[in-house]
């Protein structure tokens, strides 16, 4: 798929510990990693993977293995993650969720393409293994990558990072790696046709508005969110007319990276590239900042998705992260209200898409029904950013 055909990445976010060191499978044919799945969980697992077909596929391409085990890693809320033991190798399979999705959502082969292209760059990544378009294997496109051991800082920091110096380094590693993503020579790595960087930011506003409208087709029967439409109108009016052109990750934040075992903190892998394209690097920075917590911030609109531990002593503030990014890249972070409001608008659109999937019975994720109330909360947060009530 070319960048022109795809336009910009508009896939659903997010939130997967795609190759963490947790959740190893222990049983050759188990549907879950603990053997205590409910009937609904087992049914959903069976929709995700045909284990004999996957075994045959891997054997044909990687050679036979004495041990084969599969488990569902249920921490993510968008593309699905399966942990696979194949002999002495620990692998990860990424596939879309079952059921109807919006437009180009969940393009895992696009995710694979960018990860494969970046293997020899300064961006830390899991090793890529295989990509498959044959839906007879698991019922969808999917890809296979190596599993990376370490910690994803989703809800809390590991004890070894519980000092001011380590906390500061976590923030520095996070922003330095984002700078490395934006420094990639995308032409040289074969991604010159990966997207259309000119006009990216305006198309983001238009595309996420379109995604919202797709979700509203169903969710408006339950409740409406008029404030979100007002935010979308403001973004359309205030959208920057020009911007830098780089590779963008599209979902870059603290819980989409993994830190290696040991200390001091070392960022070992960046995950969840499904929204990567060529575009405006400040959209990436605004997204990362929208998840970062400073002391004194209001309670998060989406507590299920927003950690608060980085308000502890030692973590850099949002402004300090911006200053480090500007020094590393030479790119000035202008229009902060726009970029952070756009980030919250995108998250609200994703939440509304999740809510539609829940209403249509296409997900067993317990977070999805909460979007009935979380999305209106996000709309109010975007409004606060626009009004200057949540400053950088």
Automatic annotation (TrEMBL):
Q: Which InterPro entries match?
A: ACAD10-like (IPR052898), ACAD10_11_N (IPR041726), Aminoglycoside_PTrfase (IPR002575), Kinase-like_dom_sf (IPR011009)
Top-level taxon: Archaea
User: Which regions are flagged for Acidic residues bias?
Assistant: 1-16
Any idea where the Aminoglycoside phosphotransferase domain is?
73-321
Annotated region Disordered: the residues are 1-39
By its UniProt entry, which Pfam families does this protein fall under? APH
Protein name, UniProt field: Phosphotransferase family protein
According to the entry, what is the taxonomic lineage of the organism? Answer: Archaea, Methanobacteriati, Methanobacteriota, Stenosarchaea group, Halobacteria
């Amino acid at each position: 798929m070319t960048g022109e055909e795809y336009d910009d990445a508009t896939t659903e976010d997010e939130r997967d510990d795609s190759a963490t060191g947790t959740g190893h499978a222990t049983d050759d044919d188990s549907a879950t990693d603990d053997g205590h799945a409910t009937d609904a969980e087992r049914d959903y697992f069976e929709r995700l993977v045909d284990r004999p077909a996957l075994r045959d596929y891997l054997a044909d391409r990687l050679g036979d293995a004495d041990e084969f085990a599969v488990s569902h890693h249920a921490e993510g809320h968008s593309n699905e993650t399966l942990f696979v033991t194949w002999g002495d190798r620990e692998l990860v399979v990424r596939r879309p969720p079952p059921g109807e999705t919006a437009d180009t959502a969940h393009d895992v082969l696009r995710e694979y393409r960018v990860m494969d292209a970046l293997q020899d760059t300064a961006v830390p990544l899991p090793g890529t293994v295989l990509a498959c378009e044959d839906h007879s294997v698991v019922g969808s496109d999917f890809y296979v990558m190596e599993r990376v051991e370490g910690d994803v800082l989703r809800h809390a920091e590991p004890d070894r990072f519980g000092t001011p110096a380590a906390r500061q380094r976590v923030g520095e590693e996070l922003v330095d790696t984002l700078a490395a993503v934006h420094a990639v020579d995308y032409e040289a790595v074969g991604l010159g046709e990966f997207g259309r960087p000119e006009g990216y930011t305006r198309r983001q506003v238009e595309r996420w508005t379109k995604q919202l409208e797709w979700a509203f087709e169903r969710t408006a029967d339950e409740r409406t969110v008029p404030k979100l439409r007002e935010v979308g109108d403001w973004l359309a009016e205030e959208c920057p007319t020009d911007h830098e052109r780089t590779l963008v990750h599209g979902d870059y934040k603290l819980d989409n990276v993994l830190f290696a075992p040991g200390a001091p903190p070392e960022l070992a892998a960046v995950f969840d590239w499904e929204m990567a394209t060529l575009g405006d690097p400040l959209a990436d920075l605004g997204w990362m900042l929208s998840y970062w917590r400073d002391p004194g911030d209001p309670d998060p609109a989406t507590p299920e998705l927003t950690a608060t531990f980085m308000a502890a002593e030692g973590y850099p503030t949002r402004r300090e992260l911006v200053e480090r990014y500007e020094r590393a890249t030479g790119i000035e972070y202008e229009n902060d209200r726009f970029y952070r409001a756009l980030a919250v608008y995108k998250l609200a659109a994703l939440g509304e898409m999740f809510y539609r999937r829940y209403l249509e019975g296409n997900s067993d994720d317990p977070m999805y029904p909460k979007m009935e109330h979380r999305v209106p909360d996000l709309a109010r947060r975007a409004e606060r950013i626009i009004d200057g009530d949540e400053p950088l």
